[in-house]
């Protein structure tokens, strides 16, 4: 409790971290075709509000992995 | 189409995050519809495929409504489906009384050097699995850690659970904030499934059946036009169920594919209606060079000789139902037990045992297989050794100091005997005692 009290937002010791990029989910919202589609890339740090920086849409999607993935065709 | 059929569920089906989603990879429009189906728009979202069905017996793996399937058709995509499952997790907060600071979980960066790195393979630097990664059972999707009392953190990851040996892929990962503004994640995991033995199929006439065997196309019968069935259905399914509609569907679809026009299969052939009557369909079939009754002359794929009978063959709209063996298959050797009764748990999700029920027990008794009944009902379930007093018939206990059993009521250990008994029975005795009923054990041959 004592260490947590001194630090209002507890974080693990974090080495220099390359930011993970996320994609705005605003294009999934079909309110009308005018407000559709944002697709802005957002980068978040731990503790940030989950929100698109361009359109304030509250859902973000993770970008696809950059690792090479092998699929098995069956 | 139906509740259990796979197919397209909506135009935005691939953008949704459903808990469970079953999709067909190549859905088709039925060759034989009704005007009502068209008006309602029922065929806008496909829920099955037009399979060429041969109504005949083949190999014995088609008894009791089982279906024989063509392996080449499966390779070409018949019945291929996508299974998607969602996993949810996120940061939880813990408020305790008299505390200013509210404790909350963290999503930790994966420990690349730790011994658990194998399970954290699919994680990114943010501790969240990324789309496109292949996951195996016990892989970590979200590296969540829970605060403990000493100010540190204890791992409480969200792990993927699924069948062993299958390659599931993380399809989509969405992040959002909950009402407390804390990060929440949804993971959509995808699996492509081709039909296998035990998967369930159905026509639109309620003629459901499981896939009994999958046969090489070379071994299946073929017609003089080299038409080979996608699946073979046993004719015994017809007489008792009287699904005349299925036969008419076969005829109508066959006329439909050969003349290039969707046919209507309503039962009412009144002059004002739209239905294609069997008579008209028959004429079309004859015009297209088929027999009027929809039967074809087939050669055996195994011997190459003509079959003895003409075979009723043509397309029928078949649906793949969402009951698949891979979700249901389960077996257990040893495993978890329920604390109260010390009997094995129940159900696949709890890695449970398979119950020998009352009727199965009756069979064992009727056959006189006493040792088998003893083994299944006690040794494999909840064996327990008790100490009984032969004088008063009540349960005692084992005194480790005196190295002998002691009766709690008589306070002496002179007449103690040990015996084996199901733990549930001992529990019953004690529960009855707690209700002021005293069951006493009379030992005959101790």
TrEMBL record, chain A:
Gene3D superfamilies: RNA polymerase ii, chain L
Organism expressing this protein natively: Rubus argutus (Southern blackberry)
Record keywords: Metal-binding, Nucleus, Zinc
Pfam families: Zn_ribbon_RPAB4
Listed name of the protein: Uncharacterized protein
The keyword Metal-binding appears for this protein: yes
InterPro entries for the chain: RNAP_P/RPABC4, RPABC4, RPABC4/Spt4
One Gene Ontology cellular component: RNA polymerase III complex
GO biological process, one term: DNA-templated transcription
Family recorded in the similarity comment: Belongs to the archaeal Rpo12/eukaryotic RPC10 RNA polymerase subunit family.
Signal sequence bounds: none
Keyword Cytoplasm: no
An MF annotation (GO) of this entry: DNA binding
PANTHER family in the cross-refs: DNA-DIRECTED RNA POLYMERASES I, II, AND III (PTHR12056), GEO11084P1 (PTHR12056:SF2)
Compartments in which it is found: Nucleus
UniProtKB/TrEMBL annotation, chain B:
Family, as annotated: Belongs to the RNA polymerase beta chain family.
Enzyme nomenclature, EC number: 2.7.7.6
Keyword Ion transport among record annotations: no
Domain RNA polymerase Rpb2: 352-442
Record function comment: Essential for the completion of the three rounds of mitosis in female megaspores required for the development of mature gametophytes.
Ranges in coiled-coil conformation: none
InterPro entries for this protein: DNA-dir_RNA_pol_su2 (IPR015712), DNA-dir_RNAP_su2_dom (IPR007120), DNA-dir_RNAP_su2_hyb_sf (IPR037033), RNA_pol_bsu_CS (IPR007121), RNA_pol_Rpb2_7 (IPR007641), RNA_pol_RPB2_OB-fold (IPR014724)
Top-level division of the source organism's lineage: Eukaryota
SUPFAM superfamilies xref list: beta and beta-prime subunits of DNA dependent RNA-polymerase
Domain DNA-directed RNA polymerase subunit 2 hybrid-binding: 1-350
Transmembrane segments: none
Enzyme kind, highest EC tier: transferase
Name the record gives this protein: DNA-directed RNA polymerase
Keywords for the protein's UniProt record, in alphabetical order: DNA-directed RNA polymerase, Metal-binding, Nucleotidyltransferase, Transcription, Transferase, Zinc
Catalysis performed (reactions): RNA(n) + a ribonucleoside 5'-triphosphate = RNA(n+1) + diphosphate
Cellular-component GO terms for this entry: DNA-directed RNA polymerase complex
GO process terms (BP): DNA-templated transcription
Pfam families named in the record: RNA_pol_Rpb2_6 (PF00562), RNA_pol_Rpb2_7 (PF04560)
GO molecular function: DNA binding; DNA-directed RNA polymerase activity; metal ion binding; ribonucleoside binding
